[in-house]
Amino acid sequence: MTFVEFEDVSLAYQPGGPAAIENVSIKVEENSFVAVVGPSGCGKSTLMKLVSGLKPVSSGYVYVGNREVKGPLGIVGMAFQQANLLPWRTTLQNVMLPLEIVEPFRSRHRQQRKAHEAMARALLARVGLAGCEDKFPWELSGGMQQRASICRALIHKPRLLMLDEPFGALDAFTREELWCLMRDLWQNEPFTAILVTHDLREAVFLADRVIVMSPRPGRVIDDRTIDLPRPRPLEICYTETFAGHVHALRGQIGHARQH
Ligand SMILES: Nc1ncnc2c1ncn2[C@@H]1O[C@H](COP(=O)(O)OP(=O)(O)OP(=O)(O)O)[C@@H](O)[C@H]1O
């Protein structure tokens, strides 16, 4: 079943101005993991803003769960390159934030505070942050902050997770650790995921499909199925099939940049 659909979508940030993306049509199956790659400025983050309802389309339609997106959506979890944790809240309080804001959790939050806290503690433990609940963000490393930010994006069990370069600011080892964490979280309790990334290895490792965008105005120039078996161990990154996907994607983006 299709869960997210772009139907011939264009967006110009200024009315009548140049299009950031043009005639984009994409279908994302429920509980699948889709990555979007392309040269800088091709409109990857713009796609995120359109799906989450932070920006209206100039033309075309965006549907999430069979409903046209017309404003911010509560069923979306988001994680960005910067962890963006609130510095005055502890890690636990940061993770619990969506439960205070998003329905149906919000209206039950007072009565179910203890249960909500237990959910947050359990999720923090799953990502290896047990013992960090009472620490403030500045007491955590970059990788730990990003783990907490992923917990915050998932705590309200969103049906759709939008990831905008969430591992981009991390060192190579931490990044690979978090790929595995994301793989396990998704595999354990599937949700629909859309990942924007510059890292082609990350895209191939995590995704079922990789969508390639052209330089501005962003258009879909390829939609590549990644048929690597799951569960995928990190060692899969050193196989010929994996390298073949990465090379093909790199070639397409290089070609698109030149033309
Ligand atoms: N708020 C805005 N107002 C005007 N133009 C914008 C705005 N946000 C983005 N753009 C333009 O729209 C185009 C697409 O931007 P977007 O951020 O979606 O690209 P991107 O592929 O995510 O880029 P990067 O890979 O560098 O993060 C770019 O040319 C950018 O300059």
TrEMBL record:
Record InterPro entries: AAA+_ATPase, ABC_transporter-like_ATP-bd, ABC_transporter-like_CS, ABC_transporter_ATP-bind, P-loop_NTPase
Signal peptide residues on this chain, from the entry's feature table: none
Originating species: Crenobacter intestini
The protein's name in its UniProt record: ABC transporter ATP-binding protein
MF annotations from Gene Ontology: ATP binding; ATP hydrolysis activity
PANTHER family assigned to the protein according to its UniProt record, in alphabetical order: ALIPHATIC SULFONATES IMPORT ATP-BINDING PROTEIN SSUB, TAURINE IMPORT ATP-BINDING PROTEIN-RELATED
Residues forming coiled coils: none
Pfam families: ABC_tran
Ranges of residues in domain ABC transporter: 4-240
Similarity comment: family membership: Belongs to the ABC transporter superfamily.
CDD domains, sorted: ABC_NrtD_SsuB_transporters
Highest taxon of source: Bacteria
UniProt keyword list: ATP-binding, Cell membrane, Membrane, Nucleotide-binding, Transport
